[in-house]
Design a protein that fits this description.
single chain
């Protein structure tokens, strides 16, 4: 009887020590792919050629010369002054 109890205890320990549901990485990837949004594919953005250049998708509001790309709440020219060396004040 004692051997039977020891054997059952051993089986319980072995059963609980090893996971029954092995998680497969491929099945996780397939599940994740079901929820991914693949379209529309975003456009590729090219960085500037130098550190001071803007990326290809940038809207350049001030080019150092004029404020023609700026929008104001009131119609007309923004209230900024362009001084020497392209400094806005």
């Amino acid at each position: 009887m004692k051997k039977c109890i020891v054997f059952i205890g051993f089986l319980i320990i072995v059963k609980t020590s090893f996971p029954q549901n092995k998680i497969n990485q491929d099945s996780l990837d397939r599940e994740a792919a079901k929820t991914e949004i693949w379209e529309p594919v975003p456009a590729m953005v090219a960085p500037g050629k130098t550190n001071s250049d803007a990326p290809s998708d940038a809207i350049i509001l001030y080019n150092g010369k004029d404020l023609s790309k700026w929008e104001t709440k009131k119609a007309g020219v923004p209230g900024w002054k362009i001084e020497k060396d392209g400094v806005l004040t």
